[in-house]
Design brief:
Elements (H helix, E strand, L loop, with lengths): L2 E3 L6 E4 L2 E4 L2 E5 L5 E8 L3 E7 L2 E7 L7 E7 L3 E2 L3 H8 L11 E11 L4 E10 L2 E4 L2 E10 L5 E12 L18 E15 L1
Antiparallel strand pairs: 1-2, 2-3, 4-7, 4-15, 5-6, 5-15, 6-9, 7-8, 8-10, 10-11, 11-12, 11-13, 13-14, 14-15
Length: 195
């Protein structure tokens, strides 16, 4: 790793020819971040939703591969634009938000996956069950904001089997197949402010 040139933007640095976030501790800006998901419905389309209550910290290390992230999501904040479905998702059939009010993600390592792309290896815990979930991550950039803050942005994608976390509720269809797919795709847009 070599810091090859400096930049006048306080949010970024150039490392080995790539623009990366400046080292430091960043807090997620929940109002400018989104954790979204999509799952097959009735085997013919995808239902999409998001979690609106997300908090976390990103530690950007001098060596970017030593960076880490820790995130907590309030399960009751699930929003699929259908209150009846959201109520079902909060119930014991799915997230059991009363007994398990949060889900967490804690990174273990970061590795390069091509120019400007990274994989964050980490552990996702839902309903007391922890499984390894890698995030395919892209650094979207950084900037100084008009209020004197320094902000960075990331996008990330992942795929998981919901049944591996005990989210096994389903209903068979008369025509074959099931009401809710097992595979869930995760789509994250994150903005964080330097502390």
């Amino acid at each position: 790793m070599s810091l090859t040139e400096s930049t006048t933007n306080p949010a970024v640095r150039i490392v080995d020819g790539l623009e990366l976030p400046a080292a430091g501790t960043y807090a997620l800006d929940a109002s400018h971040s989104q954790v979204g998901f999509a799952v097959r419905h009735v085997m013919v389309s995808k239902t999409k939703g998001r979690f609106s209550d997300v908090a976390g910290n990103v530690e950007i290390a001098e060596n970017p591969l030593d960076s880490s992230v820790a995130v907590t999501i309030q399960t009751a904040s699930v929003d699929t634009r259908d209150e009846q479905r959201d109520g079902h998702l909060r119930s014991g059939d799915f997230f059991d938000a009363e007994a398990y009010p949060t889900m967490t993600y804690q990174s273990r390592s970061v590795r390069e996956a091509g120019k400007g792309r990274y994989v964050v290896e980490g552990d996702l815990t839902i309903k007391g069950v922890t499984r390894s979930v890698p995030l395919d991550l892209t650094f979207e950039g950084g900037a100084a904001d008009p209020w004197g803050g320094v902000r960075i942005g990331f996008s990330a994608k992942a795929e998981l089997d919901r049944e591996a976390f005990g989210l096994t509720w389903n209903q068979a269809l008369e025509t074959g197949g099931v009401l809710v797919g097992k595979k869930v795709t995760i789509d994250i847009e994150a903005e964080a402010v330097k502390q």
